[in-house]
């Protein structure tokens, strides 16, 4: 079994071929192919994490479309002053499907 740890933005995610992950949004059209930087590759128990070998490694992904994360509600309240504030947030993401992991 081959899997890789890739960096997307400020996060790292463990991926295998066929996984659908969410990365930070960008100006990518549906169907575009991207290459994500590799941090580590594991191939049948053999771990590759040195910079020289990872320079050749790549993870190819295909853009599936835009998506949104869960709704987060932010509430602020101050006692005895009548101050209440409610705000919502929903993070935007780009869904991608891992198509190839090469060493």
From TrEMBL:
Any one of the GO BP annotations: translation
Listed InterPro entries: bL21-like, bL21-like_sf, Ribosomal_bL21, Ribosomal_bL21_CS
Keyword presence, Transmembrane helix: no
Gene Ontology MF term list: rRNA binding; structural constituent of ribosome
Keywords: Ribonucleoprotein, Ribosomal protein, RNA-binding, rRNA-binding
The keyword ATP-binding is annotated on this UniProt entry: no
Family: Belongs to the bacterial ribosomal protein bL21 family.
Oligomeric and partner information: Part of the 50S ribosomal subunit. Contacts protein L20.
Function recorded in the entry: This protein binds to 23S rRNA in the presence of protein L20.
Protein name: Large ribosomal subunit protein bL21
Lineage of source species: Bacteria, Bacillati, Actinomycetota, Actinomycetes, Propionibacteriales
